[in-house]
Amino acid sequence: MHLTNQDLIELVEWRRKLHMTPEISGEESETAQEVAFALAATGPDRIVTDLGGHGVAAIYGGFEPGPSVMFRAELDGLAIEDMSDVPYRSRIPGRGHQCGHDGHMATLMALARGLSRKRPKRGRVILMFQPAEENGAGAAAVVADQRYATIKPDFAFAYHNMPGMTLGRVALVDGPITCASRGMRIAFTGRTAHASMPETGLSPVPSLLRLLPALEGLSSGEPHSPDFAMTTVTHIEAGERVFGIAPGSGEIWLTLRTLADARMEKLRLDAERLAHDVAATIGLVVEINYDNIFADCVNDPDAVYYLERALDDEHIAYDAGDLPLRGSEDFGGFGKDGTKIAMFLLGAGESRPHLHNPDYDFPDDLIGIGARIFDRIVRGMLG
């Protein structure tokens, strides 16, 4: 793939433009419009918009029949204040691109420029700009969209920039790469009372105190083992912020995390059982809800093979790094319906702030590196 100096200058400018106007999950309408406009200039055969929300897909067909290969980037930013000192920092209060999705979009746009100049010999390439990755809803919504069936790929590839790794180095494994996770909200309802007569009410506080260590006791195994399970309490609340009322309600919010989807089901049922048992001892009403649900992300060996070939051809060093990660990534949702997926981590520099830190900024040097890897996959698979 040959990107000119002018290409790189324009792609960096475009990435920084996106950086200034981040939109959070489910609200990416203006970002999607910007992406669709830029894609149109590269001459795809078809652009599909509003996929699973605000998703955008561009299709570039080859000259002969062959497999369909998809490359994914994310549209959404975060509800984090941008505290960086760069001149292109976010102009939207309380919103930022501290996960680097702006850079992922620029990488796919670089690939789009390459495809505009040289189509694959066979098959087709799909560039997927996916909504709502950060809350785990986006990939599933795209796959559930009826129009996705017309562009469903045989293979799908993605990367995530990763600070703490040498710039440009790749981490890649065959098998699990990120964990399944879900947010769990357990709400207890009892009965308020005057603070001087708490015995006349039904406070959830004793039950909350009993449940906390029991939930933590569900954690098991090492991060790389199939039995890995982790519970992390993220929020606790009981009653009102007053001194005269004994509480009649309370909540625990926690994140459930496992290496595999099957293990998640057991962890979920165990956590629900504990909540119901604790509530039943004193007659509390319990309600359980879930949000931010991420499936596990498992790299297919066939997809990894093509990715490794591309890295070898580009002379880019790679190893297993710290994979699999305990974090979650909803790219795995594209692999649940038969598509063979592979995701890798691309080093963003060892001294760079971590992902989701308020001063994180995607390194522009990765745009060209990521695009070269993706283009090499295209040429290796489709000619």
Please, could you describe this protein's structure?
This protein is of the alpha/beta class. It folds into two domains: 5-178 and 296-382, Zn peptidases (Aminopeptidase); 180-294, Alpha-Beta Plaits (2-Layer Sandwich). The protein contains eight helices and 16 strands. The strands form four sheets. An eight-stranded mixed sheet has the order 1-2-4-3-5-16-6-15, with helices on both faces. A four-stranded antiparallel sheet has the order 10-12-8-13, with helices on one face. A hairpin with a 3-residue loop joins strand 1 (46-51) and strand 2 (55-61). Helix 5 packs antiparallel against helix 6 (261-282). The chain is elongated.
- The ordered string of helix (H) and strand (E) elements is HHEEEHEHEEEEEHEEEHEEHEEH
Largest sheet report: 8 strands, mixed
Uncertain stretches: none
Ends distance? 12 Å
Rg calculated over all Cα atoms: 23 Å
Note the overall shape. elongated
Looking across the biggest beta sheet, what order are the strands in? Answer: 1-2-4-3-5-16-6-15
**If you consult CATH, what is the topology of the largest domain?**
Aminopeptidase
The percent range for strand residues is 25-35%
Mean pLDDT: 97
Can you count the beta strands?
16
Judged by helices, strands and strand pairing, the structural class is: alpha/beta
The proportion of residues forming helix, as a percent range, comes to: 25-40%
CATH class of the largest domain: Alpha Beta
Helical segment count: 8
| Overall number of domains | 2
